[in-house]
């Protein structure tokens, strides 16, 4: 039992008003950095709970979107209270929606859950050419590259992107995960990725297993 | 020529039997590839060809000479870029690869729900259209000119495409099912164009009553689009509604926000004798009983789901199509593709009420191996006989 279990539960149950009330009260006590970090970690735990409930099939995509918003609101309240912002990141992920595809909702859900899990996430946006992925990977040297897409044509664009990473000699330095409506085991093999998922929470778990 | 006329008559009969509740001679085949894919198949440059109607006949002709279908196996362009460009559309834009798409966009602020609920039409005209179309965010006079120009382009293109399809239909002897209106479930309209996918998911938790009232305010306008603007309704004409948001909601949200107003729209269509054509996007297995309970004889194209349960629930009432995974055509062997068709036909065809269709339409020729596509559709043509 932790004294913050009620906050974990409120985040996990997506009780926005309750979460904000707890956080406002906490901030008014003028907490130390250590205490703020503990509460941030507590919110992350609540997000893990959201992911678990989603995997069980009791939450749906709409709930995940709301949880991302809830976490962002919580961090907005908590971050200004940190005097020293350095926190330990678990790993770096470069994500983007591949060229030809303008959809970003799935990417944004994955992003908020990956940030919640402690990753440093670089989001390059939608409809991104191969060169944008390659350049960002060169620049930030991530552990993982995440490719997103909704349309069936995204599969070919994902393959182009992986091929681009290979040509630039970067493929072996990163793990590649792909997510979105059209991805399947067969498609993942064809594209040359390391993992695929249509479930953001599961995707974040795969990323965690890679950076261990 | 007489043979083509007879072929057309036979094909039309397949659909008439299907829609009117009799078992047709064979499972009708109604898939189509997207206009963008057809342009690529004909060997034209996608970005250029969408602006050039001199290639339209060639695009249809090349696709139809290779692909089998009982209806023309090419979809007319859904999103002609001309009028969208003239209007400065923000919600429908062309991607780097040339496909017109719908990015995540909101034009209604959460604080504006009351104003919208009071008079949705006025709000759309005065405030929301100029936010969705930047070329309408100008003086009234300029707005009138822009709208006139865009509507003329839209109409001219439609007439041109329609006349070309007419020639193709006669040349190949296709059956036709006339489209009679295009609308959305009120909740989908609110989500897709006004509040965005993400925005609506905040609203259903933060201001649930406003969302319910907004859906109710939209409902008469959807009924107008799908019923009142269509004289001479018929079950053989289709009022098309793609269903979007339900699978992303939990069951309580679905019952509260999505279903009541959508059901009203469908009831009004059925009552008027209008055919209803639903694209049941994503996975609706949680809501299959609701779909089964809808009145009339509705064509439901499913993207995902368990074919056995869908058949069991809808048999004898509605028409099932879809469920064949388009992506299989790219990744599997010809034999595996045919086996999948056989599997679906064995489950879905008995007793009628089924037409063959893929779970989604190809947006790009990169999506499919065309040899597999041809093999599968010809298999259905030659073997799915009652």
UniProtKB/TrEMBL annotation, chain A:
Family: Belongs to the methylamine corrinoid protein family.
UniProt name for this protein: Methanogenic corrinoid protein MtbC1
GO biological process: homocysteine metabolic process; tetrahydrofolate metabolic process
A GO CC term attached to the entry: cytosol
Pfam families in UniProt: B12-binding (PF02310), B12-binding_2 (PF02607)
Domain B12-binding N-terminal: 1-90
Gene3D superfamilies per record: Cobalamin-binding domain, Methionine synthase domain
Membrane spanning residue stretches: none
The entry's keywords: Cobalt, Metal-binding
A single GO molecular function term of this UniProt record: metal ion binding
Domain B12-binding residue range list: 90-212
Organism of origin: Anaerovirgula multivorans
UniProtKB/TrEMBL annotation, chain B:
Entry's Gene Ontology BP terms: porphyrin-containing compound biosynthetic process
Name the record gives this protein: Uroporphyrinogen decarboxylase (URO-D)
GO terms, molecular function: uroporphyrinogen decarboxylase activity
The Uroporphyrinogen decarboxylase (URO-D) domain, residue ranges: 168-381
